[in-house]
Design goal:
seven-stranded parallel beta sheet, alpha/beta
Length: about 270
């Protein structure tokens, strides 16, 4: 596998940090071209120094001076604002864009990257919830693959690789049931370590609603063929049921580094 140059949108969040964990284990296969964050300039400066990132963007423009000072003496070029993110993801030096910004903020840079034909490792489900038809249309137009990073959608994708032309009868998305299933505190998820927003969305099951919409667009499947099953152990990450009666499931530890690694290494398994 040739070395791949990675842009991480949201490098200081949970998915961004775990993406860097994967890169740290495979320095011979990946290099960091671009890091972005909203306002956590101190953490991003440490990340940029460790991984010798070529570019760093702070979206909160008021923190630009602090980030510049923190990266003084390095070769990392510092930018500010969302327009800079949208411009830099189109660079010829970027091979894969890990879209891990929180919420609606991830839509514009992801669309810019797709329009430049980049491979997208998509962890920002709101991109498809907000604009699924537009985003998937751009993906087809510019031949920009969208590889899912959500554990459930990565599982479905892996199951579909074994379809061999077998028509889908049903997609079964698994749900842990979240911390409220056992009356835990909302931010104390029993299986997964995630950021605060997605942990709360897991507790209310809102996250699973988003994932149904995401699956509908990613896999071009009608909503009535997408089922949700509560599976508290979080061992089976999702299943696909086929017309011939076969059900193929993907099982793994509840660790987001596995689907991240699968996406940025695809089609090879690292």
């Amino acid at each position: 596998m040739e070395k791949r140059r990675i842009a991480i949108l949201g490098s200081t969040g949970s998915i961004g940090r775990q993406t860097l964990d994967v890169i740290r284990e495979h320095r011979d296969l990946f290099e960091v071209e671009l890091l972005t964050c909203k306002g956590s300039y101190e953490l991003m400066a440490r990340q940029a120094r460790e991984f010798d990132a070529n570019n760093a963007v702070i979206c909160d423009e008021s923190k630009y001076k602090e980030l510049s000072a923190a990266l003084d003496g390095t070769d990392t070029k510092v930018f500010a604002g969302m327009k800079s993110v949208c411009d830099l993801v189109t660079s010829d030096r970027v091979d894969i864009v890990v879209a891990a910004m929180v919420g609606f903020s991830g839509l514009a840079p992801t669309m810019s990257a797709i329009s430049a034909g980049k491979v997208i490792a998509l962890a920002n489900k709101e991109t498809l919830v907000a604009a699924g038809s537009i985003v998937m249309g751009l993906s087809r137009k510019y031949h920009a693959p969208i590889l899912p990073v959500d554990s459930e959608h990565s599982a479905i994708f892996q199951c579909l690789l074994a379809a061999q032309g077998n028509a889908i009868r049903k997609i079964h998305l698994t749900a842990s049931g979240g911390p409220f299933r056992t009356k835990e505190m909302a931010l104390r998820h029993p299986n997964w370590t995630m950021g605060a927003k997605i942990t709360i969305d897991s507790a209310t099951m809102m996250n699973k609603g988003f994932e149904v919409i995401e699956a509908r667009w990613l896999f071009d499947t009608p909503v009535d063929k997408i089922n949700v099953i509560v599976h508290p152990e979080s061992i089976i990450h999702s299943m696909v049921e086929y017309e011939d009666g076969a059900v193929i499931a993907q099982l793994a530890n509840p660790d987001m580094r596995e689907p991240i690694q699968f996406a940025i290494g695809f089609p090879e398994r690292l």
